[in-house]
Design a protein that fits this description.
The protein is an alpha+beta fold and 379 residues long. The protein has helices at 11-28, 99-134, 175-184, 194-206, 222-228, 232-235, and strands at residues 3-5, 38-41, 50-56, 81-87, 89-98, 164-166, 216-221, 239-240, 250-254, 257-262, 270-272, 299-306, 311-315, 329-332, 344-353, 356-357, 369-374. The chain is globular and about 85 Å long.
Length: 379
């Protein structure tokens, strides 16, 4: 986290040295999913506010055969390369502190605002990542908050593939129908189980999805982990204390998957199972787990099984914004036309980036991520 201020006296140096470490800690505590993104910088002054991610076709034995001595092969083996275009968007937040407050408690006020705004920025980045993988792009959340993912950008929603999985449901290849079946089942039918977990891991393996440091990363919400930890089938088999240097925030390893706990259900991606069929599919419903009324009500959680290059974060750093993982905090104190008497200090941040599921248009390409929907008994 960096800082900028319009003041030229000692105030700037005092803020930088006093707040920088605290802000970085506030952000680090909330960034979980973002650690596993493929991050790509977009050069400035190119006339393009986006980026194109490329991925070659999967390896195949097709086109490989015996060679006849002295004969040039006629069966050429093409290496098709797919791509996905991602357009960047600017995001940010601004706060205003009055001169009455700053006159009596400047340092403490900036401390509170800085740490909170830093945490806000981290939570926003996480939420954008979850939406990029799971949401119905272009559709607002259940509380009316705009979806940061524009319509037309590819996500796993309604993929009609086995990369979008539903616990306790025999899947038909129609994701919408499978979701409706899942949401109508009792909570006990939709909990995470060892076979369901193995299904997600196996889906990645049989499609040759590359691993991250030799394992797949399982980003699991705390309420889902609540059920998992009570199952002796899991706890007796899991390997605890995996190498923290390779997988930050890891809890344990099982069947080739390293579990990383993701907290804050309002931040993650949850759907409301109490809504009518076809209504809540792919729509983030914050806090629905706080007010369940019956087994058929409450939250539907998504657990993400990540391989390498599952999703990407293109970003542009400069005047338009800063790194979304370490956004620059700007402090404006000088009087101007909008603040002629210097009655306020403005504190804010902005970033210029986007997040996207890396699933290209190449015909053999597959998602490097499995979205597993589960329910939880944690009410």
């Amino acid at each position: 986290m960096a800082f900028q201020t319009t003041q030229t006296d000692g105030f700037s140096n005092r803020v930088l040295s006093y707040y920088n470490k605290q802000l970085l800690q506030a952000i680090a505590l909330n960034l979980r999913l973002s650690n596993y993104a493929r991050q790509q910088a977009v050069p400035k002054s190119t006339g393009f506010n986006g980026i194109r991610f490329f991925r070659p076709r999967r390896a195949s034995r097709a086109g490989v055969g015996a060679l006849a001595e002295g004969t040039v092969p006629t069966n050429l083996n093409d290496v098709n390369v797919g791509y996905i275009d991602i357009k960047l968007l600017q995001r940010g937040s601004l706060s205003k502190i009055s001169d009455i407050v700053t006159a009596t408690d400047l340092l403490d006020t900036l401390d509170v605002y800085s740490k909170t705004l830093g945490a806000d920025a981290a939570l926003d980045l996480e939420s954008v990542n979850w939406h990029a993988i799971c949401s119905l792009a272009g559709t607002a959340d259940a509380d009316g908050t705009a979806n940061p993912i524009p319509a037309g950008q590819k996500t796993l929603n309604n993929s009609n593939t086995m990369f979008e999985r539903f616990a306790g449901v025999t899947q038909t290849g129609n994701s919408q129908n499978d979701y409706n079946t899942f949401r109508a089942n009792a909570v006990s039918q939709g909990k995470i189980t060892r076979p369901v977990h193995l299904g997600a891991i196996t889906q990645l393996k049989i499609n040759g999805v590359p691993m991250i440091n030799g394992k797949y990363v399982v980003v699991i919400p705390s309420p889902v982990l609540f059920d998992l930890r009570q199952d002796t089938t899991w706890t007796n088999t899991a390997q605890f204390n995996p190498d923290q240097l390779l997988w930050k925030w890891a809890q344990f390893e099982l069947d080739g998957g390293v579990f990383v706990e993701a907290m804050r259900p309002d931040l993650l991606f949850t759907e409301d199972a109490s809504q009518a069929a076809n209504v809540g599919y792919g729509v983030h419903s914050p806090n629905v787990s706080n007010t369940p009324s019956a087994e058929s009500a409450g939250a539907i959680f998504s657990t993400l099984y990540l391989g390498e290059d599952a999703f990407g974060i293109p970003k542009m750093i400069g005047d338009a914004g800063s790194d979304p993982a370490t956004p620059a905090l700007k402090i404006v104190k000088n009087p101007d036309s909008g603040n002629p008497l210097g009655q306020f200090i403005f504190v804010g941040w902005k970033s210029f980036y986007m997040s996207a599921l890396l699933w290209t248009n190449e015909t053999t390409d597959v998602p490097h991520c499995v979205q597993l929907r589960t329910r939880t008994t944690f009410f």
